[in-house]
Write a structure and sequence with these properties.
By secondary structure, this protein is mainly β. 1% of the residues lie in helices and 37% in strands. Strand 3 and strand 4 form a beta hairpin.
Length: 372
């Protein structure tokens, strides 16, 4: 056991299951997916007091994790309080449909490669609640669980502001896979993600699958200079022209770290398409350039509709590595199209505290009221 006492368990999923009832959310799920979600009350961002995330915050956590004994997963089952320590391997492959993980720790330290901490087979549609994705305990050494440098975000929310994770101890891709092709829906709720080079990337979505990331804490990336990483928080990998991103929800997350590219990376090329992407109520800060939602070098993707960016807080801690808030574009929201919306996105900290960021990149005392 890791943590002293308790254990793990797996049991079949009933036709309708109440997921986790905590201070922040309630999920109802059936074998066909989440059927209802009650959003968390306003207040603490993930990682702050009152909104804990990760395996140890899972309701009912027994105080320890059981090392995963190996083997495959059973479709429609729930796995609770397990440690998946992949050391330098290719991560945990979820190849059974409708599987849910609650209060688990997924460790990996894959070095300079294309390995992802979680991989999925086509259409398996897993759900992760109160899970932690972080460097391998076996590689990190020391006491369990491993912590970012100086405690990282665990002692100074939202993230360490002075140092990276040792690049050789971190892993390349986070729990949405490598981004080469998104072949499954995936849900992360109240999860803790750190030690990555690229956290949640997706690409070439066919409109069938969805990516849902709610109340997650994304912080403390590994040092990008070790392997020449292009560090992104959440977004599209922009692997090639002809890409597509559809049906993404990012709500009430903390996305804040040192880094050399974007916290929100949704830069698109001329032959790309992006529809139904909702980025709402998040705290976003740091990286090289914090926000990049729009076209690249004047290209106009088509279609580019249903893009909603509302209620986000753009913070000053940790500070950006770059001098501009955005890159590639002249504005953070350089798009046009039906159903696109920009409202109530504000600064926190510094001389612009409380002011509004407009989609053209200007800073104003009042909110933007225009339409696209």
């Amino acid at each position: 056991m890791f943590g002293g006492g308790g254990g793990g368990e797996a049991f079949p999923l009933s036709s309708i299951r109440m997921g986790l009832v905590g201070r922040s959310s309630l999920l109802l799920r059936s074998t066909s997916g989440i059927i209802a979600a009650i959003p968390p009350p306003p207040g603490a961002f993930p990682g702050q007091a009152g909104n804990p995330v990760g395996f140890a915050a899972a309701p009912g956590y027994p105080g320890s994790l059981t090392p995963w004994p190996g083997g495959g997963f059973t479709a429609g089952s729930t796995y609770k309080y397990f440690l998946f320590d992949n050391k330098t391997g290719s991560g945990t492959n979820v190849n059974a449909a409708g599987v849910t993980f609650i209060g688990c720790y997924f460790g990996n330290s894959s070095g300079n490669g294309s390995q992802a901490i979680i991989t999925t087979s086509s259409g398996v549609n897993p759900t992760f609640q109160y899970c932690t994705y972080a460097p391998s305990p076996s590689v990190m050494g020391g006491s369990f669980p491993p912590l970012p440098p100086g405690g990282g975000g665990y002692t100074t929310w939202p993230s360490s502001t002075t140092s990276y994770i040792d690049g050789s101890l971190g892993y390349q891709y986070g729990p949405c896979g490598t981004g080469a092709s998104t072949n499954s829906s995936i849900t992360h709720d109240h999860c803790d993600m750190w030690g990555w080079a690229n956290c949640c990337l997706f690409a070439h979505m066919n409109g069938t699958f969805t990516v849902t990331i709610t109340d997650c804490w994304i912080h403390d990336t590994r040092n990008p200079s070790t392997y020449g990483d292009h560090t992104d928080g959440i977004g599209d990998i922009e692997s090639s022209a002809g890409d597509s991103v559809h049906n993404v929800v990012i709500n009430h997350c903390t996305i804040a770290s040192l880094g050399n590219t974007q916290a929100l990376a949704f830069q698109m090329q001329s032959t790309d398409a992006m529809t139904n992407v909702s980025v709402t109520n998040n705290y976003v800060a740091g990286f090289g350039n914090t926000i990049n939602i729009g076209n690249v070098s004047g290209f106009t993707p088509s279609p580019y509709t249903g893009i909603v960016f509302t209620g986000n807080v753009i913070g000053t801690a940790p500070a950006k590595e770059g001098t501009d808030l955005y890159s590639h574009n002249s504005a953070p929201f350089n798009i046009s199209g039906s159903g696109n919306k920009w409202r109530n996105n504000t600064y926190s900290g510094g001389p612009n505290d409380g002011k509004f960021l407009w989609p053209d990149g200007s800073i104003n005392a009042t909110d933007w009221t225009g339409l696209f």
